[in-house]
Amino acid sequence: MDNDSDINFNNKKKTFFGQPRGLSTLFFTEMWERFSYYSMHAILLFYLIDNARNGGLGMDTPTATSIVAIYGALIYMSSVIGGFVSDRILGAQRSVFWGGVLIAIGNFLLVLPLKFIGLYTSIIIIVLGTGFLKPNTSDMVGGLYSKTDTRRDAGFNIYYMGINIGALLAPFIVGWIGQSYSYHLGFALSTIGMILGLIQYSLGRKKYLKTDGLKPGDPIKPAEKGKVLRQIVLILFLIIGGLILMAVTNTLNVNNIIFIITILGVLLPIIYFINIFRSPKITAKDRQNVLAYIVIFVASVFFWSIFEQIMTIFPLVAQQMTNLSILGLNIKPSQFTGFNALFVLIYSPFIASIWTKMGDHQPSSTTKFTIGLLSSAFSFLILLVPISLYGIGAKFSAWWLILGIAIVEIGEVLLSPAGLSLTTKLAPKAFTAQMMSIWYLGDAAAQSFNAQLVKMYTVNNAPIYFGVMGLIALGIAFVLFLMHKKIANLIKL
Ligand code: PHE
Questions:
Q1: How close are the terminal C-alpha atoms of the chain, in Å?
Q2: Which of 304, 347, 437 to mutate to test the pocket of ligand 1 (most atoms within 8 A of CB)?
């Protein structure tokens, strides 16, 4: 199979920055999906809070913030559904297509003045659509390479640039149009973006994508149908039953839902790993690979925890502790979230070309993860410098925060594409898409965990908060460094 694909996809005439041509199809699909996700991310909060005269829904700020948090966690948790559907029913290619259709419909519902009904239905549809699209697109990027193709990591670095072009354009274009003209117009733009993405995907997939993603990796056998159906009904029953129980006991509120999602966020990856380990469909070699993967996965959760706080705590620090004028411009706290994508785009071409040049000699995934964790540790620890120089409560230059983001992004560019690449490489055949779901569950677990953690942050305990979190990340980086050889010995391709 790999040899066949080499003939079809390594054809020099049809490359995308020296990579298989299918990478371009997946690059633009994911770019538009992220454009739509980060657009929603940029305007949802303001749409919820703004009063009706300004076209908003007039919600109170705490409830609105919680809804945005739940949305963020569910978006990545739904990859579990997408992984299942792809591995067992539709295959990756069709799952991505239907995911894109759902996302476009979800965004379109927000173009119409449907208020709350429109909002909740659209959130459910977009969450499902993203679960179908995001893990399966990443999974298919892995499918473009043979297990030993050294272009793989560089390919994921390029793909990661697509993600971040979408993430950078969204707050600027949709954020600006949404807040200056109309939220509905903003959502219309993200609908159009997703439709463009779908059109180019439909045209490109037949030509450039491997035929692998056309079939489910582990289709449900006729004899299994009853059992799987019973399991699905049981899960639906538990969810609906639980919600009804909460409603009648008057405990159905946003805080309780966030709490349940926190627990789910942590439990889901554990359940998934146990499930894979117990499966008769995996070989002894697969088991070793999954074991190595678990160590790396746990390290990634610590990285994502710090990374996601750049999106939540850093804007708060910006507002409370910094002087927001930079190069004569007065920046808004929320705009700090845009710096992540900007730094990813600045670093990625260098990193991708370094990996391409190094080929076989590039550092192992474990080394990339160790450096990633080190950089996340230093992005927090660096804040101790201005705090100790100027004292708690004094305003320091916002450049310190930008420096912190610049440091953590070195880590993201090393760790995140390497993580995607490793996930596709170590996945047992019967679980390829579901392993990708697990990768996204790492971020979901971190965000769920953060939902509780960030409550501890205040201006007064900022030094302890950043100091302790930074030291923990340093510790994890050190442990990973010590386990380097063990992990390498476990991995068998
Ligand atoms: N910028 C990344 C993305 O949007 C952040 C991320 C990494 C999210 C890993 C989930 C998991 O894809």
A1: 15
A2: 304
